[in-house]
## 1
Amino acid sequence: MVLLSGGLDSATCLAIAKKKYDPVCLCIDYGQRHRVELQRADDVARSMKVRDVRVVKLDLRAIGGSALTDDIAVPKGRKPKRMAKGIPVTYVPARNTIFLGLAVGLCEVVGAADVFIGVNAVDYSGYPDCRPEFIRAFEKVARLGTKAGVEGARLKVHAPLSGLTKGEIIRLGVKHGVDYTYTHSCYDPVNGLACGACDSCELRRRGFEAAGVKDPTRYA
């Protein structure tokens, strides 16, 4: 089971999972501002010949509280050092807890025991639900709170990109054959194109520079 957002991290994670498994991909339509990522997720899955892609609709705009799901401006023009201070307004309350819960539920249905998620907390660690300690804690919850876990299935949550910089992730993805042309990272796209100024665009651009790989992103 791979949580696929359409971003470069989740695309890399999918490529890693495919080396060992025939994965099911789970994409979440949660009312995100950058909804174009759902089409990109489908493009990524097709490019890697994934046979089973599920899309779950879950409107987190009803909760709000994030620049990605509410009428809150997306920060622009920030440098990495500034990004590292505090939890940014692009944090979606409990998003990875919700997403992993859905993924584990689907695992029970399709008989999977491994969940892959492309979280990363090195370039900037403002999101509390991207930390390794959160992933390990959720894994315990999954084993305690599911029929599969109670019956002895060793549910495992894999975060293979944890501890890697964006440049290292991109180099790893290239090694695994990821075509980043299909991916989308921008939080505030303009007519489907990357804005080039939000935190995610800045980190993506710097990642390609650090990796020594040409950036295929189409910027507005």
## 2
Amino acid sequence: MVTQLNTALRPLVVDLDGTLIRTDMLHETTVRAVRNAPLLLLMLPAWLARGKAHLKRQLAARASVDVGALPFNTTLLDALRLEKARGRTLVLCTASDGRLADQVAAHLGLFDEVMASDGVSNLAGANKAAALVARFGQGGFDYAGNSSADIDVWQASAAAWVVSAPESVAERARAMGRVERELPQAGGGLHAMVKALRAHQWLKNLLLFVPLFAAHRLSGAGDWAAMALAFVSFSLCASSVYIANDLIDLDSDRAHPRKRLRPFASGSLSILHGVGMAPVLLALSALVGLQVSAAFLGWLAVYFLVTCAYSMGLKRLIVVDCLTLALLYTLRIVAGAAAVGLEMSFWLLAFSVFLFLSLAFVKRYAELEVQILKGKKKVHGRGYYTTDAPLVQGMGLSSGYAAAMVLALYLNSEAVTRLYKTPEVIWGAVPVLLFWVNWMWVKAHRGEMHDDPLVFAVKDRASLAAGGVFGLVLLIGSVGWPW
């Protein structure tokens, strides 16, 4: 659309990718299209061979983007609103496909005109500069951009707005002597990359050590060395999966009050970085895992495949999602046993499945509570309705009590009398476990639960106290009374 230009002010032309939004629409649509139909990966080279504009048009046709949830540069938006109030003509000019650019412009209601790639011509760099000169004349517009591709456009403009640009690009823009305004880059860099690894989630991988403690096999230096390598391998694999999951789950994360701050959802780290980081971490994980044992590497592969299945679809299936999460927790224990050549106990497996199923339901229940407070009827990207919250709570509590029952039955088995000097003391673990299960559900019911129950537990005083008492009971049962 074209409108009459304000003659008192030069039009301000604004780039979209990396400037108006802290992401790139080509990357956004690629992730969504491949997520919905993985075989589309095979089509990308053929589409690209017909030109980048054609590739963008094909992806835009196959990927739905919630433009209202995109990570907009709020500082720039505030400045644009002031310019608009002054009566200045604003033009959105982008290399992204026109369908997407029109959606962004319609959502914001700020722009008088939209210029974008049309499936034939890719409106970037020299092409964008030529189109703007043809439309407004040499030096007949100001331009807000962020990348080296915008250098040609700034050279054709009267004044430059440098927005969220790398320092090398900003220096080149300054050298032209026409920078009118600079809006520096916020966040990103190494800090965002480290945050994307979610290293705090590596605490879950301490479950690898459970078989060693359960078997009372604590004195072997070789076992501890193998477990240390297994921990590193599992952590690298988990981070690879977290990054892939964050890329797949962008829309759901942006709809969540806390997850929207994650690096990829917020735009502090580019999708392209994530696409590069995930396979590198996975390869490093496999290399470290090879140093442990073939059996461990096999279980690591199972964990990775199950996690991929969860990210690609299982997390959208009610109940199946929580069963899968419980399986993923339990697989850590199984992999830990494989790392040191231990056979898995039936009791430990049964206890793990029920306990972690309860925690998985805690996680889902906490998400439902958040959506209830926001007045939503359904959790984005999940199969649950907010009316399912009481049912989820009931299933979770039942699973927790089943874990306590398995523990109680185990305490009456021959294995206990063989492993513990004072087995009667071990019964104290049952009420401690019951307290903790109920405590976690009370916190979830009050809306005080973290997105991940285990992360919550390591920060919660009552949970730490319960863990300390549980460990003390097991210790006394193992070595006997100290008097």
